[in-house]
UniProtKB/TrEMBL annotation:
Signal peptide: none
Membrane-crossing segments per the record: none
Protein known as: Metallo-beta-lactamase domain-containing protein
InterPro entries, A to Z: LACTB2_WH, Metallo-B-lactamas, RibonucZ/Hydroxyglut_hydro, Sec-metab_biosynth-thioest, WH-like_DNA-bd_sf
Amino acid sequence: MATYNLALILKNCLNENEFLLVKQTPPPKFFDEEYDSFVDTDLWDLPSTKLNLLDGELEPGIAIEGMESLLPKINFRKYDIQSAINRVLEQVRIEAVDKGDWKFLKLVEEPEFGPGLPAHTIYVTGLTGGNESLPELCKWMHIQSCLNWLLDVKPSSDRVGPLAVIGVINDAVQYAEPKVHTTLKHQEYPPGVTLVPMKSRTQKPFHTTNVIIFAPQSVSTECGDYKFVASGDALIVDPGCLADFHGELLKIVSALPRKLIVFVTHHHRDHVDGLSIIQKCNPDATLLAHENTMHRIGKEDWPLGYTPVSGGEDLCIGGQRLKVIFAPGHTDGHMALLHISTHSLIVGDHCVGQGSAILDVASGGNMTDYFQSTYKFIELAPNALIPMHGRVNLWPKHMLCAYLKNRRSRETAILKAIENGAKTLIDIVASVYCDVDRRAWIAAASNVRLHVDHLAQQNKLPKEFSTQKFQTTCGLHFLVRWTLAYLAGGFLSNYKQNMSKLLIAGAVAGFAATYSVKYKFNCK
């Protein structure tokens, strides 16, 4: 199942090389001066709208040449296409569209980024009068102007969204060979940055990890005279797919140039499970990682040497420059990667496509570091945030500020729970995450522990609160009480459960101890 959107490529009849872009509406403000002071630049994209289902089937009132070719994949007669076109035309205030010039261009199926349904897009072209007075939120653009915005990013410059890139621009830039050899659905946005979501051992609500690939087919002069920690003809980031997908990963790697760079943002299994496949397929590949990350990657994953990075280094991939960013917080070896020409930022697990990230207390996760890394990302002012789970985020500063706001809100709630008498980890988690599925409490506990550490560093904890006693409640004590709460439907205070439940609780607690740090879940 999927949802469907309609995107219109409205061409100017006075100059058919021009098409219409619409300024996109930014997310709502926070109404907090600190966060609202960070503003993303304007984003322009094709006019689009969601396609609504009809009660039955109906031929579109507007004739669209070529729509019948959709029938093997989607019965377009079940969707109200005419109303969708009318909504878009009202949005851009254009009436003069020759009804005989509507043509179906293509259907683009979105990869399964998760956690929701993929959103597929039907692209339809139309020809306008070209002499209409456009509202301020619209402008005529041509492909080269869009490419200049996309590939030669200037500070505070406007941006072009994925519908225009995937629907128009990528098709106009022809390549002799596909950039990525795979049968899996994938997405190239920003240009040159290909995301292939692959099933992985990640945690709900996600099911995939975005394996990211750079494989420039035309050599750029962008690298200049920089000193590079590594140079190659292609780059692959976080190959963390399940064994069932190692065949697809093998096809991808086999088709990439031999001079391959592999970059891992951190050591979690859903980011490194495919390393052994790359090493076997291309023993000459160079692995880049922080030393804290490599200490946690097994020899069975990568038995060869590696190049350590600590932040600030530059990579040259096919003539394109990328900068390594040290971004601790999620783990103590967590890294990010900035693609210079598109100014897009690969953020690892610092951010996820939906919800908030979990910090790994067992691998050096640190709340102070997390806040500092978030501000570092804001200062970089990227054009797009590319997480390893979920869709590309088009409003980076807003997303990062939302993360800051969420973490501070949680920290305030944790402090309030402590001031109200909570002294153990389970008591704090139960108070702060009372509206969250109890299955997520183990993951939440990792963040709570780090928030308590952060409060202690700021000398904000009440004097009567003992951090030493608190630490003693973070192991088996928490796991047993969480298990009892889960089995008893949240009855936290009564320890006198019947013997069968206690036996089950012990078994579940023992199992949970093995996986006591779950580092991603939707607890926003």
